[in-house]
Structures are given as C-alpha cells and as structure tokens.
Here is the input.
Amino acid sequence: MKKKVFQLLVDNTAGVLSKISGLFARRCYNIESITAGTTTDPNFTRITIVASGDDVILDQIEKQLSKLIDVRDITELDPEDSVYRELALIKVRAGEAQRENIMTIANIFRANIIDVTPESLIIEITGNQSKVDALLKMLEGQEILELARTGIAGLGRGVENVVHLEDLK
Here is the structure.
C-alpha cells in the first residue's frame, strides 16, 4: 500500500467537504487524514487529503476528485518537493514524580507544554508525522489520557507550482 498526499483548492461552499468524503465512502477508498481551511481568498478552501491504496486506486482517487464540480485544482504533493506538518495535542497523566521526565522528553522534540494540572499535562507538538510518532514512542510507558492529531497540512516548495486564486474565478 502506498500513500499519496493530495492538495485540493475547492469552492468554499456548504457541503463541499461532505461531497468529497462521500466520494471516498461510496467507492470504499480510505482517507488516512483530511484537513481543510479557508485560503487568503474566503471564496476558496484548501483541503489536504492523505489517501492510501495501490497505484490504480490512487490514480482513480485523483481522477474522481477532479470530476467534482467544486474542485478547482488538485495537486499531488510530492514528499521531496513539499513541506508537510501535523499538530498533535497529547494529554499525559503526570503526577509530581513523572512531570520532570515528561517535560524533558517534550523539550527534546521542541514540543510545548500548554497546560499543567496536578494530575496531567498537555503537550503540543508540530512537525512531520515521523516527529509526532517519535514523541509518542518516547512517551510509551506513560499513561496517555487523550490524543488529538490534526492530520497533514502541506504546501509545495518554491513558487513554480503556485496556483493563483484569482485564476480560478
């Protein structure tokens, strides 16, 4: 199984995310992660989808997405020519005895402690998926109470492949 990261520019209309996720559900395609947010132009939303499958399925996903009326542009974000980031919030049980060790681990990964209570702390980490996974691996043995991951957001490097939003209108 391969993974591909697709970046879509879509019309910022009600139900557009539902149409895209419905396409995946109808065809039994798997979404590894999906993130969406408005662009500098509020008429458009940038959606980043990580999908998995063999070459045939991944090509079919791209073709099916490009047929949706609200999809204005679709680009595959090649890992070598793109920057990917993910945000994770990790709530860890941390009494007085564990707190210093957990904070040391978080500092190694340049993560931030954003909330502390007598029984727990919340770690915020931003980076590529392998960095988030590595921090979680280092926290094995600690009790992770809750975990929230955003999924990948990504952009292509440089200015060569920038899609100018005014050209989509």
Remarks:
- Residues 55-67 form the longest helix (13 residues).
- The two ends are 37 Å apart (CA to CA).
